[in-house]
């Protein structure tokens, strides 16, 4: 009597091609995903770590606090004389907390450079006591661990204009890997599904099976957060992704462009106290905000000359989602426009919130903890996935021999 042979059902067309794409993309971009995930994971708690390490520079001594701070122009000159840099001070961030110092920033980029260290000519942060002009700390951000990690995460230390695509393309492939991974994980019935939601290693002795479970189970749990992380990441890299978000949220592919405003009674010469006037007016407009940033060198981040003084007001500490844009005449300090957060359309609100969503800070400290754990799992996936492939390859080689 012949024994009946039970043949395994062949995988469906979708699962078959999902497995192939998952493998091919994993082998091709796994190393980049590992680097990007690890650097991003470490970066999550940047603010918390820096607040501890720079505590003496961030906060001023209580006995030095007076009713009125020194003029911004005077503080700027004090910084310039003390630091002796060839570049002008780019901006100042002013906190509304009287116990905190002002942050003067030197920032200049070289558009012709091809890597991070050549592209960033200077990125220096100076903490100044606004009540006596004392410099509390000078930090060369160009060589600080967190800006370097950010550059690795953003462009693998390459020029930001095109380095973002070197990271962006692998992340797009990673999105496909996450989708195919969910397809491969998803079982046909509920009973089998339960076994794929938890670790059962009582009778498991081989490291290969444990490694497979780590990749399979942890990968499933993190996949939905990883999709959010990946989509919010490529939002920065590809204009078409940003345009798709804009179209879905507000019905137009592009964000509204800011119109250039001209003051009717602008002065012909600059008022020496213009930055103080701007600061006073901003404080009146948004007294409950966290801080605001004033450009001091007359240029924007791209190096173009500013026609006015655009002030960015941050509603919450260490967050960018709640932002207000106030514009002043650069000669007289007269208020030209005020655009509060509630007047933005949905696409503009998301544009401001995307960075916080990507880093987890949008959801508070709990969000950062979850994002950190998710980042660790994403970092492990290329490693466990490669070990699964390596184990199968060796097994196949033994069978062939």
What distinguishing features does this structure have?
8-stranded antiparallel beta sheet; 52% helix; 401 residues; alpha+beta; single chain; 13 helices
Structural features, described:
With 401 residues, the chain is an alpha+beta fold. The protein is 52% helix and 12% strand. It has an eight-stranded antiparallel beta sheet.
End-to-end span in angstroms? 32 Å
Radius of gyration: 26 Å
Q: What portion of residues belong to β-strands?
A: 5-15%
Strand line-up in the sheet with most strands: 4-3-2-1-5-6-7-8
Q: How many E strands?
A: 8
Structure, briefly:
The chain is an alpha+beta fold and 401 residues long. 52% of the residues lie in helices and 12% in strands. It has helices spanning 13-43, 46-53, 55-58, 72-83, 116-119, 145-155, 160-185, 190-195, 207-237, 239-250, 274-285, 346-359, 364-400, and strands spanning 91-95, 102-109, 120-128, 135-140, 291-295, 309-314, 323-328, 335-339.
């Amino acid at each position: 009597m012949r024994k009946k042979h039970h043949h395994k059902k062949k995988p469906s067309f979708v699962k078959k091609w999902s497995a192939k794409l998952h493998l091919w993309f994993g082998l091709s971009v796994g190393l980049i995903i590992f680097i990007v995930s690890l650097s991003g994971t470490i970066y999550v708690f940047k603010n918390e770590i820096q607040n501890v390490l720079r505590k003496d520079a961030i906060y001023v001594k209580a006995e030095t606090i007076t009713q009125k701070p020194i003029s911004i122009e005077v503080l700027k000159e004090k910084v310039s004389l003390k630091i002796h840099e060839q570049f002008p001070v780019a901006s100042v961030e002013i906190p509304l907390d009287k116990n905190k110092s002002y942050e003067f920033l030197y920032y200049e980029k070289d558009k012709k450079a091809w890597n991070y260290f050549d592209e960033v000519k200077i990125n220096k942060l100076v903490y100044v006591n606004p009540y006596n002009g004392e410099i509390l700390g000078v930090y060369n951000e160009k060589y600080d661990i967190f800006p370097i990690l950010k550059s690795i995460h953003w462009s693998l230390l390459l020029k930001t204009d095109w380095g973002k695509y070197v990271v962006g393309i692998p992340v797009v492939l990673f999105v496909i890997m996450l989708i195919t991974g969910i397809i491969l994980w998803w079982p046909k019935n509920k009973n089998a599904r339960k076994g794929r939601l938890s670790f059962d290693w009582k009778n498991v002795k081989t490291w290969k099976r444990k490694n497979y479970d780590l990749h399979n189970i942890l990968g499933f749990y993190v996949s939905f957060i990883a999709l959010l992380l990946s989509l919010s990441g490529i939002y920065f890299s590809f204009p078409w992704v940003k345009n798709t978000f804009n179209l879905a949220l507000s019905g137009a592919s592009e964000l509204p462009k800011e119109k250039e405003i001209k003051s009717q009674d602008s002065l012909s010469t600059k008022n020496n106290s213009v930055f103080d006037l701007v600061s006073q007016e901003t404080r009146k407009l948004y007294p409950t905000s966290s801080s605001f940033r004033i450009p001091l060198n007359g240029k924007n981040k791209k190096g173009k000359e500013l026609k006015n003084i655009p002030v960015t007001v941050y509603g919450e500490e260490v967050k960018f989602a709640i932002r207000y844009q106030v514009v002043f005449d650069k000669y007289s300090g007269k208020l030209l426009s005020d655009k509060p957060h509630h007047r933005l359309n949905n696409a503009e609100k998301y544009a401001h919130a995307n960075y916080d969503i990507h880093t987890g800070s949008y959801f508070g400290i709990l969000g950062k903890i979850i994002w950190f754990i998710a980042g660790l799992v994403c970092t492990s996936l290329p490693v466990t996935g490669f070990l699964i492939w390596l184990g199968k390859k060796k097994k196949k080689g033994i069978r062939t021999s």
